[in-house]
C-alpha cells in the first residue's frame, strides 16, 4: 500500500461542515443506547446522570443542554468504517467510551472544585458530592455491561482495551493532582500525564469500533496511535484554552487552570524555557504553592493576568501551540499503516483539524 501524502493543518482549511455532520452522526446513533443504559440506574442516579448529560434541567424538566462535542462517539463509528464494517457496529463502543468519559468528568469536576461545565452548574454543585461520586462509579460499571452483553469475542477484546484505557485515565488524573503540589514538573512528565488523562481514552475510541468490526490487532494498534497523538493535541489545545480561552466558549471562569494551580503544558514549557520571565514566573508559582486555597481564591484578575503574561513571554503559549500541531501531524501519519477507504481517511483528517483549531 502506498502511504498517503504527508499533510499538515496549514495545507487545507478545516472542513467544519463535514466535522459537524460527523459529530452529529455519532451523537444521533449513540444517544438512544446511551439513554437506555442510563435508564438502568436506580433513582435518583438515573435523573442525576440525565442532568449531567443535558437531557433534563435541575428541576427534572426536559432540556436540550450541551452534551459535549461528541468527538469520541464520532471516532468510534469512523473506526468501525476503517475496518470495513457499518458505522452501527461501533455504536456499543461509542457508548461505552462515552460512559467512561463522563464518569471521569463527574469525578474531575468534584476534585477540581469546578462549578460550571457546559455552561451550567456541575452535578456536585446541584446534587451534592456524594451523588457525583456514585453516578460516576455507576457510569463506569455500565460501560463494561454495554460491551460484555454483546457476548462476542470482539466484545471481549474491546472491553480489554477499554479497561486498560480507563486505568491509564485514572493514572493521569492522579498524576495531574500530584503535580499541583509540586514546585517543578518536567515537560516529559506533563506529556506522560496528558497522554494518560486524555490520550488513552481517545486512543481507545479510535480503535474500539474497528475491534468490534473484527479488525486485527495491527490495524487496531495503528488506529489507537492516531487517537493517542490526537488526544495529546486535544489536551494541548485544552491547556491553551484553560488559560487564554474565552469563558463564553469554554463555559469556565477566566484563567481557569491558573486558578486551580495546574501544571499544564504552557506553564511547564514556560518554566523550562529559562530567562527572566521564566524565573519571575517560577518565583510567583512557588509563592502561590505556599498559600492556602482560600488565600489563592482571593487573587485579583490582575494577578492571574500577570501570570498568564509571564507564561506567554517565556514562550509557553507558543511552544504548546506548536506541540498541538506536531501531535496533529503525527496522528495523521499513523493512519498510513491502515488500508481504509479514502473517504474515511479524509474524515479522520477533518476531525484532527477540528480538534486543533477549536475555541471551546
TrEMBL record:
Source superkingdom: Bacteria
Alphabetized PROSITE patterns for the sequence: POLYPRENYL_SYNTHASE_1
Annotated GO MF terms: metal ion binding; prenyltransferase activity
GO biological process: isoprenoid biosynthetic process
Claim: Metal-binding is one of the keywords in the record: yes
Residues annotated as transmembrane: none
Lineage: Bacteria, Bacillati, Actinomycetota, Actinomycetes, Kitasatosporales
Keywords: Magnesium, Metal-binding, Transferase
Species annotation: Streptomyces radiopugnans
Protein name per UniProt: Geranylgeranyl diphosphate synthase, type I
Keyword Metal-binding part of the UniProt annotation: yes
Protein family per UniProt: Belongs to the FPP/GGPP synthase family.
Pfam families attached to this UniProt entry: polyprenyl_synt
InterPro entries with a match to the protein in the record: Isoprenoid_synthase_dom_sf, Polyprenyl_synt, Polyprenyl_synt_CS
Gene3D superfamilies for this protein: Farnesyl Diphosphate Synthase (1.10.600.10)
